[in-house]
Structures are given as C-alpha cells and as structure tokens.
Amino acid sequence: MRPTRDQAWQTLTRYTKSQSLLRHALAVEASVRDYARAYGEDEEFWGCAALLHDFDYEIHPTLDRHPQDGAAILREEGYPEELIGTVLSHAEHLEMPRDTRLKKVLFACDELSGFVHACGLVRPSGLDGLEPRSVKKKLKQPSFAAGVHRDEVYAGAELLGIELDEHIANVIAALQPIAGELGLRTAADPATA
Ligand SMILES: [Fe+2]
Ligand SMILES: [Fe+2]
Questions:
Q1: 123 band by pLDDT with thresholds 50, 70 and 90
Q2: CA 48 / ligand 1 centre spacing (Å)
Q3: Does residue 192 surpass a pLDDT of 70?
Q4: Which residues of 3-20 are buried (b: 16+ CB within 10 A; e: fewer)?
Q5: pLDDT mean across residues, the chain
Q6: CA–centroid distance, residue 11 to ligand 2 (Å)
Q7: Helix (H, G, I), strand (E, B) or coil at 124
C-alpha cells in the first residue's frame, strides 16, 4: 500500500492527542517535505514518514518502547516496510544505519525543527526575521529548549553534508508557511497566537 497524507494524519491523531506533539509532527513534516521538494524526491511519502515518526510517543513515552513498539502498529495498519524502517531509524538508541536520503533528512530535521519552533515561540514576530546566527547562539545556551539534543542537531547537518547555517535557514523557511498551525505569531499579526 502507498500511504497518503490523510491516512498518516488519521493514524497520527488516533494515537496522539497532545497539541505539542502534533505540532512537532507538523513541523518535522514541513521541513522534510521541503527537502523532498528540493531533492526532487517523493514529497508525499517523505511527508508521511515524518508525520508518523513519533506517532506512538504518547502511548510509548519511554525508549524501551518508542519507536519500536510503534512499528508493530504501523505494520498492522499496512504501512510499507520502507516507511517503518525510516521511522525506526530516527531513534539514536536503536543505532540503525541511516542509509537512505530520507532517513538522513528525517534525522536532521527532527531535533532542529523543534529547536527552531522553540526560538519562534519566544519572539514577538515568531519566525519572521529569525536569522540562523541567532539560532546558533541559542544552541549554545544549554538552558534554552533544554530537551533538544544539540549533538543531534550538529550531527544532522553533517549527515546532510550542508553547513549548519544553510540547514537552519531551510528549516526556518519550511516552518514559516505553517506558523499559525504551530502557534507562532507573525510580524504581520503580532497580537494573535
Ligand atoms: Fe522519537
Ligand atoms: Fe521527533
């Protein structure tokens, strides 16, 4: 079966109710889709994998279960092994090889999307005008968005073979069109959110 975005969204929302987790899924999806477009890859398939990468985190919040127990659910729902393997590969503790472009991109976008999102949340204009330079500065402040693994952010850019600045700029650009869904203010409408 070839998964569709609707199907992936249905699976995601069946197991995930938390707004912050849903926003995380949307942010990673947007970033991964932008890379798919840039590389001329299958945007719908890449987007589904990104949307589902943490789909079981709410029901399996510990690393002895996430994401490995989620894989069984995806299998039961008929998702292809390529998607399931991609979902599994985002988890550092499983130490699976990131041997496809999609696996590399998913890993590279996971922590950074969360971090850029966090940067946008503390700015009056959200992501508008946010520069990679100030994101990098915040990466060096351990107390800011302390849950984001910095080493994975740096490793992600390296895995993609691009400069961190470029990767950050790509993720900012990917999140901007869905700023509203992510609960971010924009320069045009600083009063909302
Ligand atoms: Fe995860
Ligand atoms: Fe994630």
A1: very high
A2: 15
A3: no
A4: beeebbbebbeebbeeee
A5: 96
A6: 16
A7: coil
pTM of the model: 0.96
Q: Nearest ligand to the C-alpha of residue 88?
A: 1
User: In this structure, which residues have their CB less than 5 angstroms from ion ligand 2?
Assistant: 54, 110
CA of 53 to the centre of ligand 2 (A): 6
Amino acid at the residue 151: D
DSSP letter string, 135-157:
HHHHHT-TTTTTTS-HHHHHHHH
3-state helix, strand, coil in the chain (%, to 5): 60, 0, 35
Q: Which of 173, 119, 179 is nearest to 190 (CA)?
A: 179
Residue 74, SS3 per DSSP: helix
* Centroid of ligand 2 to alpha carbon of 21 (angstroms): 8
